[in-house]
Amino acid sequence: EEAEALCHRVGIIDNGRLIALDSPANLLANTGSHVVEEVDGEGHSWFFDSRDKATEHAAGMENTVIIRRANLEDVFIRLTGRKVRP
Q: Which residues lie below 8 Å from residue 60, measured CB to CB, with a gap of 6+?
């Protein structure tokens, strides 16, 4: 949250390699503004450029899902395929 609110540019580093560098707004725009996140099962996430498209996708799903706005952690997951390590 702090990086989204305070930073003009954000770098995404994976295994010591810079894989993305842009403003938080541009990184989020390239990922999708909304996420459909599976609560049960495998915990997959799908990214959409509008809440309407996310809702439409979620309507056809059998598992419980959450629809929420994307954040920079989602950008990291989408670019690297894994969650941020503590």
A: none
Q: Where are the beta strands (DSSP E) in the chain?
A: 10-14, 17-22, 34-38, 45-48, 65-69
pTM, two decimals, is 0.78
Q: What are phi and psi of 3, to 5 degrees?
A: -65, -40
Q: Is 4 within 8 Å of 24 (Cβ atoms)?
A: yes
CA atoms within 13 A on the CB side of 47: 17
pLDDT, one tens digit per residue, over 26-63 is 999 898 899 999 887 677 889 999 999 999 999 988 88
Quote the pLDDT of residue 56.
94
Q: Are 31 and 22 in contact (CB under 8 A)?
A: no
